[in-house]
Design a protein that fits this description.
Layout (H helix, E strand, L loop, with lengths): L1 E6 L2 E6 L4 E2 L5 H7 L3 H27 L3 H14 L6 H17 L3 H26 L2
Antiparallel strand pairs: 1-2, 2-3
């Protein structure tokens, strides 16, 4: 038995037999690619590389309390997220991290928002990886 639920403004699908949660929504990428499957696959490959680099840099900036870098890497992530559709889940959190980095305040909130966002990014990575290995 499968059912659909809404999760933070995006569609999340849960299959009760495998407990698989889908966080990605590739509709933006599919529209952007105009149905070109090879282009979609290449963009997903680039997305996975970029998002992992950004996550690592952002995490390091947070650990080193480097507010300008926090702002920079959060800003870069905001432009990357729509390709996986997880901007609907964490876009506002990443935007908040960027703003707090710019203001150089509230490291505790930045850490909380980052950990939440990182968890969603890693779920998305697990979903997308099989798509580029076809």
């Amino acid at each position: 038995m499968a059912f659909k639920t809404h999760f933070a403004g995006s569609h999340a699908h849960m299959n009760t037999s495998t407990l698989e949660l889908q966080v990605c929504d590739l509709s933006y990428l599919e529209q952007f690619a105009q149905g070109n499957a090879a282009f979609i696959q290449e963009m997903l490959k680039i997305y996975l590389e970029e998002i992992n680099i950004d996550l690592n840099h952002l995490e390091s900036a947070i650990e080193h309390v480097d507010f300008p870098s926090i702002q920079h890497f959060a800003h870069h992530m905001r432009s990357t997220l729509p390709f996986s559709g997880i901007d609907k889940l964490i876009g506002k959190d990443i935007e908040q991290i960027e703003l707090l980095g710019k203001q150089a305040i509230d490291l505790r909130k930045i850490k909380f928002l980052f950990e939440k966002s990182k968890a969603i990014c890693l779920l998305a990575n697990d979903e997308l990886q099989p798509m580029i290995n076809r």
